[in-house]
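Design request, tokens follow.
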């Protein structure tokens, strides 16, 4: 029970959240922009109200339970805001038929004379958002695709529900791990709500079935055991995180100045060995060529909600007269690698906590990528929980405006909204950096008084 004068306000915010989540998950379609953004705005206001009034440990615990309950309310919904589910099921059905998901493009199975694969039908094929590209999902994700499709071999909706059950379990684990890491750093327990109750996290991970949920869970396990000095378990968990999504590879350079010599080498070697073992069921020439092709396409053809890349792209149009993404993508990826490695080498691990360093590493990636879907920010929001920076929370609201581009006819990005999004986010980010720099300077000055 929530007691106190603000109790009714919390109850009202909770009820509004429940109703809006149900409305978005079960009723609204992706192209219904006004309803979707209106509902999301209501969710965000309710989220901020609950965060504001979470000023006791009892309220925090009550709101954590609410966060889990909100995820359960959308358990049976079909992921109407994302069509990635069809590729998940496609890959799962291929695996269950003994076919390597990287062996052929989806178009191969629609050609005359192609093998008849159970569940690989024209109706499913026409729902795929990238039928001309190889899959890009690593083995942990493929495992859950396979299990979900095996339980419901003829139902996409049934497979989606099974996937969502797994994701909710991972999310509950992540919420618990966040509280443990907050305790380690002696940070307020209410910070867990910035992740647990964030509408972007609930809708994109639990709602839209994005497998960042597993990557985040295993990443948190890796961070927790690294902080407590149990490096073997940490390396194993990091390998599972990498095998869920490849993104955690960018955090490896940060360990260079946090553990030294033999310990660092052993950690890297163990992570590589564990990752190789996890990839073993899929490792063959098809995996190597298919994954390489997918990654190459990601950096040289895909573009969505970018910032620095869009500015450079306009320069390319002006100078060359055409889209230079095939050049810019490679240079931006190389620049991200150089900047991340440079930051890892020069940052002071005694002043910058590991999660904060990870936040700036992933921000480098986000600023230089050619593609930034809303769910990519889930890791940014997560890491901000352990820092004084709140611009990721603001960003998690603004990034949802990208859904305005969807219509019944397809997708057309609204660059005006994209510009507004990044101007606001970058201004607030640099403001917070300045404020925290001034604060830390004053704190260091007091030590010498």
């Amino acid at each position: 029970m929530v007691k106190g004068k603000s109790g009714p306000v919390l109850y009202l915010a909770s009820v509004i959240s429940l109703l809006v989540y149900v409305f978005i998950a079960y009723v609204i379609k992706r192209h219904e922009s006004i309803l979707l953004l209106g509902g999301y705005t209501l969710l965000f206001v309710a989220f901020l109200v609950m965060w504001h009034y979470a000023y006791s440990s009892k309220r925090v615990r009550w709101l954590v339970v609410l966060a889990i309950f909100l995820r359960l309310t959308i358990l049976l919904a079909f992921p109407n805001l994302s069509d990635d589910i069809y590729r998940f099921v496609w890959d799962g059905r291929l695996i269950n038929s003994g076919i390597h998901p990287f062996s052929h493009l989806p178009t191969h199975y629609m050609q005359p004379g192609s093998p008849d694969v159970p569940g690989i039908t024209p109706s499913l094929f026409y729902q795929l958002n990238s039928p001309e590209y190889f899959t890009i999902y690593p083995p942990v994700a493929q495992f859950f695709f396979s299990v979900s499709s095996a339980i419901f071999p003829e139902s996409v909706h049934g497979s989606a529900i099974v996937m969502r059950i797994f994701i909710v379990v991972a999310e509950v684990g992540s919420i618990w791990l966040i509280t443990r890491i907050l305790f380690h750093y002696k940070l307020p327990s209410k910070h867990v709500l910035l992740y647990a109750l964030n509408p972007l996290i609930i809708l994109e991970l639990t709602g839209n079935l994005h497998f960042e949920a597993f990557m985040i869970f295993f990443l948190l396990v890796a961070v927790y055991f690294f902080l407590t000095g149990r490096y073997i378990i940490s390396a194993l968990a990091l390998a599972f995180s990498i095998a869920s999504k490849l993104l955690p590879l960018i955090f490896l350079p940060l360990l260079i100045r946090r553990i030294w010599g033999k310990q660092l080498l052993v950690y890297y070697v163990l992570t590589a060995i564990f990752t190789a073992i996890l990839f073993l069921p899929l490792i063959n020439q098809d995996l190597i060529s298919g994954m390489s092709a997918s990654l190459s396409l990601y950096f040289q053809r895909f573009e969505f909600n970018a910032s620095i890349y869009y500015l450079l792209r306009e320069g390319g149009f002006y100078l060359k007269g055409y889209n230079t993404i095939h050049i810019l993508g490679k240079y931006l990826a190389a620049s991200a690698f150089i900047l991340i490695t440079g930051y890892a080498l020069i940052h002071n691990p005694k002043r910058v906590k590991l999660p904060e360093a990870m936040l700036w590493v992933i921000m480098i990636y986000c600023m230089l990528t050619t593609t930034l879907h809303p769910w990519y920010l889930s890791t940014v929001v997560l890491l901000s929980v352990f820092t004084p920076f709140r611009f990721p929370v603001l960003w998690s609201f603004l990034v949802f405006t990208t859904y305005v581009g969807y219509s019944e006819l397809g997708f057309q990005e609204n660059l005006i909204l994209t510009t507004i999004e990044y101007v606001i986010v970058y201004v607030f980010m640099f403001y917070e950096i300045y404020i925290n720099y001034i604060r830390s300077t004053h704190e260091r000055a007091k030590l010498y008084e």
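Comment from the thread starter after seeing the answer: thanks! The chain has one domain: 7-447.
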